[in-house]
Amino acid sequence: MIVAFYDYDDQTNHLNGTAIHDKSRLFQLLQGMRNRSPFICKLVGENGYDLLVGIGKFGFVEHSACNGDPPYLVAVSPNSEPEEGEFEFMCGGTPTPISMRNCLPFDDVLQIVGYFQETGRTYPGVAWEKV
């Protein structure tokens, strides 16, 4: 499935709107942006669903319909006892706190987005909760 990339912190990012056809290109793009301050991007699938993704030391993933209808599902940390507190990701120049309960190792984020690109669905290897 083709996904389109949108940087929610930098509207001038030349990659905004880029159609990504394969998982290796998607991984390359996301990994290449980890040197920035943590930020939020969106991957819009051609199937009518999208992922809101946090990119940084940690990441997070939220799955929802492109039209804004619920449910909104957020991936839950695989750690049995995740750190308390929040981690901030930039969105439109504003720090946006995400609970550590929903922060994931970046390798897990890549698995989730790779699965989404292949299937358009939520990755079954992590727990999801409604928000």
Describe this structure in words.
Helix content is 18%, strand content 38%. A hairpin with a 2-residue loop joins strand 4 (49-55) and strand 5 (58-65). It has helices at residues 23-32, 106-119, and strands at 3-7, 18-20, 39-45, 49-55, 58-65, 73-75, 86-91, 94-99, 104-105, 128-130. The longest helix is centred in the last third of the chain and has 14 residues, at 106-119. The protein has one domain (3-130). By secondary structure, the chain is α+β, with helices and mostly antiparallel strands. The chain has 2 helices and 10 strands. Strands 1, 2, 3, 4, 5, 6, 9 and 10 form an 8-stranded antiparallel β-sheet that branches. Strands 7-8 form a two-stranded antiparallel ribbon.
List keywords for this structure.
two-stranded antiparallel sheet, 131 residues, single chain, alpha+beta, 18% helix, 2 helices, eight-stranded antiparallel sheet, 38% strand
Q: Outline of this structure?
A:
The chain is an alpha+beta fold and 131 residues long.
Shape: globular
- Write down the Rg: 14 Å
How far apart are the termini? Answer: 26 Å
- In sequence order, what are the helices and strands, one letter per element? EEHEEEEEEEHE
Structural class by sheet pairing and helices: alpha+beta
Q: List the domain count as a whole number.
A: 1
Mean pLDDT: 95
Q: How many helical elements?
A: 2
Beta-strand content bin = 35-45%
Poorly predicted ranges: none
| Largest sheet entry | 8 strands, antiparallel
How many E strands? 10
Give me the oligomer status.
single chain
Approximate helicity band: 10-25%
